Amino acid sequence: MLAGINMIAVLGLSLLTGFTGLFSFGHAGFMAIGAYVGAWISASPASTPAGLGLPFILAIVGGGAAAGIVSYFIGRISLNLKGDYFCIATLGFGEAIRLIFNNVNRFGGARGWPGVPGRSTFLVILIADVIAILFLANLVKSRHGRNMIAVREEELAAQIAGINVFRYKMISLIISAVYAGVAGVFFAHYMTFIQPKMFSLTKSTELTIIVIFGGLGSISGSVLGALVLTALPELLRAFEIWRLVFYGAAVILIMVSRPKGLMGGMELTPSGIRKALAERNALREAKTKLLADAQSGEED
Amino acid sequence: MVQFLQQLINGLSIGSVYALMAVGYSLVYSIMNFSNFAHGGVIMLGAYFGFFSLTLLKLPFVAAFLLASVGTLAVAIIVERIAYKPLRERKAPFLYFIISAMGASILLENIVIATIGPTFRTYPEVFSKVPITLGPLAIGRLDLIIFAISAVCLTLLIFFIEKTKIGKAIQAASYNVKACALMGVNTDRVILTVFGLGGFLAGVAGVFFGMKYTVYPQIGNITTKSFIAAVFGGLGSLPGAVLGSVILGTIETFVAGYLSSQFRDLIAFVILIAVLVLRPTGIMGKVTEDKA
Amino acid sequence: MAPILSIRNLTKKFGGLTAVGDVSFDVPEGSIVGLIGPNGAGKTTIFNLITGVYKPTSGAIEFRGKSILGLEPYRIADMGITRTFQNIRLFKNLTVFENVLTACHMNASYSFAEAILRLPRFRTQEKALVAKAENLLEIMGLMGYRDLVANNLPYGLQRRLEIVRALALNPVLLLLDEPAAGMNPDETEQLMRLIGCIRNDFSLSVLVIEHHMDLIMGVCEHIVVLNFGEKIAEGIADEVSRSPQVIEAYLGTSLEAADA
After folding, report:
1. Whether residue A193 is found in the same domain as residue A48
2. A127 touches C: beta carbon within 8 Å
3. Which end of chain B is more exposed for a tag (fewer CB within 10 A), N or C?
4. Exposed/middle/buried for B289, CB within 10 Å: 0-12, 13-18, 19+?
5. B80 vs A38: CA distance, rounded Å
6. ω before A49 within 30° of 0 (cis)?
7. Domain encompassing residue A288
8. Residue A170, pLDDT score
9. How high is the pLDDT of residue B287?
10. Which of A14, A1, A27, A31 is nearest to A223 (CA)?
11. pLDDT recorded at residue A22
12. Looking at chain C, which subunits does it touch, using at least 3 CB pairs closer than 8 Å as the criterion?
């Protein structure tokens, strides 16, 4: 279940990082916004802190929208920055959001908000996951998705190819923020209790790690990554305190040995497999051709 | 006026601790062009090493202090060997380094939580808590010592970088590592030196931090602030890191003193964002552009 | 015939260094113009200025009679100026086909929503894009490498792919930055013919930066020579190769080869 929730955030981040090439260490901040706004919308006015008592669906929309709006402003400020400065900016914003929630007593401050209704059922999350995946898949396999990939591959060439790089980065950021916000709403309604420290830098890093583990540029990778990396530690509940130790070690291991991740950019779909095979064949053909050319050259 | 000076001294003290931490970040950034997020974990370990040297091993202060710093030097180098060197060899993009650094940081923090436990520890009182009075001012002995030793360390560091052969190699490498290697500089040794220096200073900073506040596994997170100071002063510039840290520490203390301590942490992030928007290279940073 | 590109008093300074100093020249419509000069003469800087990557310190650039100063690079590409790069900037991890397909994006106009909901407009336009990409690959002889990851293409073909990608944007003016770099005489010969062909088949104007003198002399109708950021000569091949300033700038080596 938790895996399903994480998956939504991971998918969103995958668009930003895996497909558009921007790394963020602040997405837990967007989850936090979604969680708090969503909780505020759906918690009953009788609970402490007080909410609006509106239907769940409004909470989802509201939480997602709030995260998206905030991301727009963050994007305006930081998307113009160079690679690692953008990372630093997202880190800064993520932590700043957490600190702000720590200090807003209306939402419970650092002690948290305990009265969130438990609306996140398995079915709801499953449906949300499916929608999230389809939405993303359709986006990626279109000219807009390809443009984002171009930005990731060679930003300067993308500019010259007529791609409005800033706009695409911004759209990618906003969509990823909305996804994270929605994930935050589901999270709040699953845990029924939220606290700013649940949305810390460690959480942001976890999300990025899952995206990398699954393989940048692969939706199926992100899906699998979210399932494996969230569910596995749940099974090893006894080793709870060692979970993060293994996480850290695993991250280093992945970066050092197979940074392409689980799927390495490939998709686990019929067309994805066909594409991977076609690429492999083309490479083999090209190699034999080069070899043949070289040999016929030698014969002269 | 008295309160102002009091706060100023406080600010300088914490600023100098930040400076020790920030310098480590800046050094690594200047050579390897990435932000070593594992640095926070190393600083945290410094605090623990010092603590255990004093309590378990019952060493005298100076010995414990040195042991802690040497310990962190070793840890920093080990982290470099395991988490960064393989990436360097594969010419991985810098973002992979950051991820690996994050991993190392999570690893260090949680190993401590899992083994030693998350409870806060307090350093035994090494220096008398009785402040030195200078007219109406009460200056904590610890603050004075921190400031003094930090100043000495930083001066030695700058001396090292400016005057020694390997220091010059570090300067050269901060502009172009490949060209350096081509000129016959053993870049591997330069990198080791940089991490070693940063690690040693991290130990000093960690011990001081532990003495001034408390020891807990999440110290690494506080050092995000020293990282912000490094950015503020200009990533890659040592004087910048020091300047940024001192200014940040002072501003922070004033905000906490005159406004509210709740805003103390937030102000650091506000500064970060202001820097990134207005002048990303910081006060004294280098500007580099690549050819189109 | 009005020039398709008109550069007047273009100057670009980087701090104290004047990379381009008061350069003026025209690219007549439908012609192939060569831009030559020793390394560091400012040629690529001029390309960067034209495509909007750099903003000029002063001067004017007019494309089809309208100023393009201060426009974003993607806008300028939209208007019909595209380029290739000195150090090849292909989308290295994408296949040959994907490189070109991505560049075709301007030929479609479906929105995000239409793409996500897979509405009919998306489907028809997407099919047209695929057809266009495949057509281009076919014409330029790269269809056989369709699914090869661009990074694995032989060097000469990578350069050709970059040109194909540029063509996918329906350019009116094509800027080629050292397209023959690293090629042997055979490949250079092929490239020469290719440039002439695409100029005719696609009705383009071409501005080429090159060091390979045989290519310049063989294919350019008009040549502009730069040195230290300034224009030192301009004219047809013969005139330029005999100009004393040009000979001095090049110390005569490559021009002797062209004379031979």
Report:
1. yes
2. no
3. N
4. exposed
5. 43
6. yes
7. 269-300
8. 92
9. 58
10. A14
11. 87
12. A, B
d(CA A245, CA B129): 37
Helix (H, G, I), strand (E, B) or coil at C232: strand
Supply the DSSP symbol for A48: S
In a domain, A48, yes or no: yes
* Interface residue of A142, A260, A287, A291 to substitute, partner C, most C CBs within 10 Å: A142
| A297 & A194 share domain | no
Instruction: Work out the minimum CA distance from C256 to partner chain A, whole angstroms.
Output: 31
In a domain, A216, yes or no: no
Looking at residue A51, the DSSP 8-state letter turns out to be: -
B276 in contact with A at a CB cutoff of 8 Å?
Answer: yes
User: Is residue A247 in a domain?
Assistant: no
Q: What is the mean pLDDT of residues C222-236?
A: 85
Domains of chain C by start residue, with CATH: 27-91+155-259 (3.40.50.300)
Q: State residue A223's pLDDT score.
A: 87
pLDDT per residue over B155-173, tens digit each? 888 888 888 877 777 777 7
DSSP E strands in chain C: the ranges are 3-14, 17-28, 32-36, 58-63, 66-67, 81-83, 173-177, 205-209, 222-227, 230-235
* Co-location of A182 and A284 in the same domain: no
Provide ipTM, 2 decimals.
0.81
> What are the two backbone dihedrals, phi and then psi, of residue C67, each rounded to the nearest 5 degrees?
-70, 135
Distance CA A153, CA A147 (A): 10
CB of B1 within 8 Å of a chain C CB? The answer is no
Tell me what pLDDT residue A169 has. Answer: 92
- DSSP-derived 3-state class of residue C139: helix
Are A179 and A299 members of one domain?
Answer: no
In angstroms, the first-to-last Cα distance of chain A is 67
C56 class by beta-carbon count within 10 Å (0-12 exposed, 13-18 middle, 19+ buried): buried
Answer whether C148 touches A (CB < 8 Å): yes
What are the sequence ranges of the domains in chain B? 2-218
**Residue-wise DSSP of C73-123:** HHHHHHHTEEE--SS----TTSBHHHHHHHHGGGG----HHHHHTT-HHHH
Domains of chain A: total: 2
